[in-house]
Amino acid sequence: MKKALALTLAATMALGLTACTGGTTSSGSTTGSTSGTTSSAASSGTGTSQVANKDKPLVWFNRQPSNSSTGELDMNALSFNKDTYYVGFDANQGAELQGTMIMDYIKANIDTIDRNGDGIIGYVLAIGDIGHNDSIARTRGVRAALGTAVEVNGAIDSAPVGTNTDGTATAVKDGTLEVNGKTYTIRELASQEMKNSAGATWDAATAGNAIGTWTASFGDSIDVIASNNDGMGMSMFNAWSKESGVPTFGYDANADAVAAIAEGYGGTISQHADVQAYLTLRVLRNALDGVDIDTGIGTADSAGNVLTDDVYYYDEEQRSYYALNVAVTAENYQDFMDSTKVYEPVSNQLDAATSPEKSVWLNIYNSADNFLSATYQPLLQNYDDLLNLKVEYIGGDGQTEANITNRLSNPSAYDAFAINMVKTDNSASYTALLSQ
Ligand code: BGC
Ligand code: CA
Questions:
Q1: 193 in contact with ligand 1, CB cutoff 6 A
Q2: Is the CB of residue 133 below 6 angstroms from any atom belonging to ligand 1?
Q3: Is 90 close to ligand 1, i.e. is its CB under 6 Å away?
């Protein structure tokens, strides 16, 4: 938390400066957001601002504009205009938590974990999307904590191994764990990207099929299941591990997964979607109101909404807000049962006199994504009312950007945009439309 605090303080200071400059520019010398805000407020309609589409507030969320093979951030997209931001969460901090949570469980249950008693603690890993930062981070976090990580070019290899029951795969190695004077081997028995034939990633049904295939040939060796998310984790849990009593660890703290902890689901990680959903809409709200971007975030707004630095930080250079993660296990899951409840410190209604209704176009890359549809979107829908935003929600097919961009034929009808890309490399498919 120390680091997060320092980062937040630095960011707040930097922000103060930015906000001053930005504020002066927009109210002083341009017909930008401030005058746009006034005119659309006066006509009390939405989408009537005279702001050019390329200058409207834009927030990327959940899938950070970046190169899907190297992870390098796409700063062109992240600084598309002065009111562009990214909202996500700290993928590395969360991944480390996930790995540690699994390792802690293994140690605490060492007497019973090795189901076939061969001295090998075998796990299988469901990978969401080999080109998605969050998925890569989680694969690395699990391997690092379990001692199975192998480095390539200075970073942990996050490639799927396929099947590795004999321990010969090169993307991982066998880990060793010593407890109570006994030494165990930890082995990644299998891992694969859960992508369906149509191309949709993080695919729960594919994970359900995979666990069926794996258990049919080496089910007795599987002692632990790790999954890059709860959608896939729950699919495997329902297909096999619930009945077999094998702990399954996911990510996202979706309501069904949290509830399943009572039935033997091992645990999950909350990425504080309640904070992220708020930030996603809040940065747009602030830009539309022409106020300091920190309003209602690090600095209380007039309704009393404010976040503290134990739940998020802002990285000014990356123009990115990151929520912090929390482990959810048998010890604390009761506190996480309602995954779509707004975060109390930011649950106050804004005054429509100062924050008049505005319209926002927002897309979800795949309407079938468990986390986004079951947790994130319901949260957004709770916050849009509180923030006086009229949001049009577009659900994609998870396969092509065109399926989504086709439904942004008239960007002029909206005051701001919130974008969740299918592929993190594809920001230009959206910015091209806004630049026309
Ligand atoms: C979530 C996944 C989800 C993905 C979609 C991740 O942050 O953990 O569950 O499928 O976002 O982009
Ligand atoms: Ca074993």
A1: no
A2: no
A3: no
Residue 180 CB contacts under 8 Å (≥ 6 apart), including other chains: 110
Quote the ligand 2 centre to 136 CA distance (angstroms): 26
371 lines ligand 1 (CB under 6 A): yes
Assess if residue 53 is contained within a domain: yes
Which of 270, 293, 318 delimits the end of a domain? 270
Distance CA 270, CA 325 (A): 5
Type of residue numbered 379: L
- Nearest atom (ligand 1) to Cα of 201: 10
* Ligand 1: centre distance to CA 83 (Å): 25
Candidate of 127, 132, 370 to mutate for ligand 1, largest count of ligand atoms within 8 Å of Cβ: 132
At 150, which CATH number? 3.40.50.2300
What's the total number of domains in the chain? 2
CA 201/CA 236 separation, integer angstroms: 16
Q: What is the rounded CA–CA span in Å between residue 209 and residue 160?
A: 16
Write out pLDDT tens, residues 291-335. 999 999 999 999 999 999 999 999 999 999 999 999 999 999 999
CA dihedral 365, 368, 370, 376 (to 10 degrees): 50
Is residue 4 one of the residues assigned to a domain? no
What's phi and psi for 156, nearest 5 deg?
-65, 130
Question: Which ligand 1 atom lies nearest to the CA of residue 371?
Answer: 9
Candidate of 280, 371, 420 to mutate for ligand 1, largest count of ligand atoms within 8 Å of Cβ: 371
The reply to whether 73 and 102 lie within a common domain is no
361-390 pLDDT, tens digit each:
999 999 999 999 999 999 999 999 999 999
Question: Do both 239 and 119 map to the same domain?
Answer: yes
Lookup result for tokens 């077999």: 244
- The verdict on 125 and 83 lying in the same domain is no
Q: What single letter denotes the amino acid at residue 110?
A: I
Torsion of CA 236, 238, 243, 245, to 10 degrees: 50
